[in-house]
Design a protein that fits this description.
Number of helices: 11
Shape: globular
Strand order of the largest sheet: 2-1-3-4-7
Largest sheet: 5 strands, parallel
Order of helices and strands: HEHEHHEHEEEHEHHHHH
CATH architecture: 3-Layer(aba) Sandwich
Structural class: alpha/beta
Radius of gyration: 24 Å
Oligomer: single chain
CATH superfamily: SGNH hydrolase
Length: 289
């Protein structure tokens, strides 16, 4: 009797083992995760990130937007946001995890607690992000900062050019894929001109701001503080105070030359998508042009 039972067990053992073996993952079901890191020009409110995640990725790509308003390459780490990002990068469950990193706006001078030194701190911070993404098993992609949309005499003011160039150098030195959003966005905004570019903001421009843009020179949308109580508001300043309109936290729903509304997010996320397909060919199958 015992011999018969043993024979039955041995006969069914291969079947049980086969049933419990995990199935091989079909190539068509390989999924990736994309994590967005940066400031308000990438963030959920005020940036291109929402349109990128919502309109330009197939269902086989998860997209996590961890960009935060007012953050630089320095304080994004010191306040703890990078620690949260690292948990996402190392969580597993996906074939690959790509991390798009865009800083620059808040690294500029004039933003206490945020500004970093262009020659030393900024490139060192980017290199450290790249190294840590790779150490966690992720794949970094550097993104040059989105242009602002301020004009002087018909020419776009390229105040972020040094930070874009520093990002390019880090990408070359670390052999990291680069999405040159700055170059592409600068060329696009310059071509359309100051007045048309106002449509990319979160809110329509005040009448006097639009009138100025039509002359080829933009003015601030924030009027100066009245000198005495009860006095009429002073006219808008000639230039926007970027430190004032790019505070810590979520972008305010107002008009400025930095943050993006829906039209702006849609327009620039398309540029990011097109450039990403070139920079990282392995991602093309997950991107919707």
């Amino acid at each position: 009797m015992k011999s018969l039972l043993l024979a039955a067990v041995l006969a069914t053992a291969p079947l049980v083992a086969h049933a419990q073996a995990p199935e091989a993952e079909p190539p068509m079901f390989r999924a990736v995760k994309i994590v967005l890191i940066g400031d308000s020009t990438t963030a959920v409110i005020g940036g291109w990130g929402p349109s990128f995640c919502g309109q330009h990725l197939t269902s086989f790509a998860a997209c996590i937007n961890l960009a935060r308003g007012g953050r630089s390459s320095g304080n994004y780490r010191t306040e703890g946001s990078w620690r949260l990002a690292m948990k996402e990068i190392g969580s597993g469950g996906f074939t690959d995890t790509y991390v798009l990193i865009q800083f620059g706006h808040n690294d500029q001078p004039g933003k206490p607690g945020r500004s970093t030194d262009l020659a030393t701190e900024y490139p060192a911070n980017l290199k450290r992000y790249v190294e840590e993404v790779r150490a966690a098993g992720g794949k970094p992609v550097l993104v040059t900062p989105l242009t602002r949309r301020q004009f002087q005499d018909g020419k776009l003011i390229d105040d972020l050019a040094p930070w874009a160039e520093a990002t390019r150098k880090v990408a070359a030195e670390t052999k990291t894929p680069l999405v040159d959003l700055h170059a592409k966005s600068y060329a696009a905004v310059q071509a359309m001109g100051a007045a048309e570019a106002t449509r990319f903001a979160q809110q329509p421009p005040p009448a006097e701001v639009l009138a100025a843009a039509r002359t080829g020179t933009t003015i601030s949308a924030q009027p100066a503080t009245p000198a005495t109580p009860g006095a009429a508001p002073a006219p808008a300043a000639k230039a926007q105070n970027n430190a004032a309109v790019e505070p810590m936290g979520q972008a305010k729903l107002s008009f400025d030359y930095t943050h993006l509304g829906r039209d702006g997010a849609d327009y620039f996320s398309k540029i990011v998508t097109d450039e990403l397909a070139v920079a990282v060919p392995a991602l093309r199958r997950y991107l919707v042009p």
